[in-house]
Design brief:
14 strands; TIM Barrel; 8-stranded parallel barrel; two-stranded antiparallel ribbon; about 425 residues
């Protein structure tokens, strides 16, 4: 089994000058440490306007900074918000490919749609249509990273003319695709699309076994039709994390932060009422703290032996990766670093010893099923050289129009106010 660190960049109130800067600088140091310790992944979310819960609105910037401090750790978007109200698919393709280049091919492309009204409303994303928007944009973004040129597209959620989206990523055909999963139904969606499942629900190992079985049974079935140009068959699950030789110290250092993580998530996604810039979630959490359940070894908080037993349950369930929520609430940077070092020294070796062998065996078992899945996919048809349109430079168009030399009407780009392209047809997937 592999391991990762997971970042929301939580910043509970009260906020003092320099605190946000320190939060990001500490996280960079933690990722650098994780890389040195042999931890395989660092995941970073994308959220907008979710005060205190997540101050990570530009993960591509943070992960790019991580790429220059590290050598081996995989850099995971956990996730990119894919509806075009948040991010145009071409911009996602450009950023993912660029990060893959500057990191020498270490990007994991997690995707999702969000279910927080502060985000959805802030970017005018239609709640009822966000899943369909996610599907359309992920598929086309993958096409953009692969095709030379991208033929163009007229879809339900975005239109784009023929363009060659550059740069192209190091990893071919494109970095591994994942999707955020919060329940068994989205696990099944991930498997049907042939992509990794980033499960952000906190489940016990018994429930994890059911999710894993669902996922891999679909990967091996005719239901699996890849959304991308390859299949990424992996399941990652999150857990809390605070480890110390003394179980009580582990709880004292990590339990409150993990409980705030859950409380703030609930505030923004389930039960909260939020006044931007004014609601104090930490203050509300403190008032509710006594009624919240304690967290311990069942959430990855305890001694090395307790953590080992907790992780072994996921390993036996067939989980491929466990990501630690080590930065939550007001957890201290030095405690996080100490816990990562202790984990790497006393717990991780047991799970890493046979990982390469396990992964090799798994890949060999899945290879024929993945080959069949890719054969079921209807790939976008490439343009012939004759079909690739010429794009006339704007300056030349203006000059030609002024001289009366224009022979054809250039295509009008909706909302631009100017004519910029001549004979630039778009093509839907075939």
């Amino acid at each position: 089994m592999k391991f990762g660190t997971f970042y929301e960049h939580q910043l509970p109130r009260p906020w003092t000058e320099g605190l946000e800067q320190q939060l990001f600088q500490d996280a960079l140091k933690q990722v650098e440490l994780a890389d040195n310790l042999g931890i395989e992944f660092a995941w970073e979310v994308e959220h907008h306007f979710l005060e205190e819960y997540s101050h990570s609105s530009a993960p591509e910037v943070f992960l790019a900074a991580c790429s220059q401090r590290t050598k081996n750790i995989r850099l995971g978007h956990g996730i990119v918000l894919m509806p075009p109200g948040y991010n145009h698919p071409a911009r996602v393709a450009e950023r993912i490919a660029t990060l893959d280049l500057v990191s020498n091919g270490r990007v994991e492309w997690g995707t999702g749609e969000s279910s927080a009204l502060l985000e959805l409303g802030g970017y005018n994303v239609d709640v009822a249509r966000k899943r369909a928007a996610w599907r359309e944009c992920v598929e086309q973004c993958a096409n953009m990273m692969v095709m030379d040129p991208y033929p163009g597209f007229k879809g339900e959620f975005f239109d784009m003319p023929t363009r060659n989206v550059v740069p192209k990523p190091v990893q071919r055909p494109h970095p591994p695709i994942w999707v955020a999963c919060s329940n068994r139904e989205t696990i099944k969606l991930a498997a049907r699309c042939g992509i990794g499942a980033l499960t952000f629900a906190f489940v016990d190992p018994e429930e994890a076994k059911k999710w894993v079985d669902d996922y891999y049974s679909i990967i091996k079935s005719e239901e699996c039709v890849p959304i991308g140009h390859t299949v990424n068959a992996n399941i990652a699950m999150v857990t809390g994390f605070s480890v110390h030789p003394d179980a009580q110290v582990a709880k004292d250092r990590g339990m409150d932060g993990f409980r705030f993580f859950g409380y703030a998530l609930g505030h923004h996604y389930i039960f909260g009422e939020h006044k931007p810039g004014r609601t104090d979630i930490w203050k509300n959490f403190e008032q509710a703290r006594a009624a919240l359940p304690e967290e311990g070894e069942a959430r990855g908080i305890g001694t090395p032996d307790q953590l080992r037993n907790h992780l072994r349950g996921f390993q036996e369930a067939g989980v491929d990766q466990v990501a630690f929520i080590q930065q939550g609430g007001k957890n201290k940077h030095e405690h996080i670093c100490e816990a990562l070092e202790l984990f790497a020294r006393e717990v991780k070796p047991e799970f890493s010893e046979f990982e390469a062998e396990r992964e090799k065996k798994k890949n060999e078992e899945l290879a024929p099923f993945i080959e069949k899945a890719l054969a079921r996919k209807k790939f976008m048809k490439a343009l012939t050289d004759e079909e690739i349109p010429n794009v006339i430079a704007l300056g030349r168009q203006i000059t030609d129009e002024g001289s009366g030399a224009v022979q054809e009407e250039p295509e009008q780009r909706s909302g631009s106010g100017i004519s910029i392209v001549r004979n630039d047809p778009t093509r839907a997937a075939e």
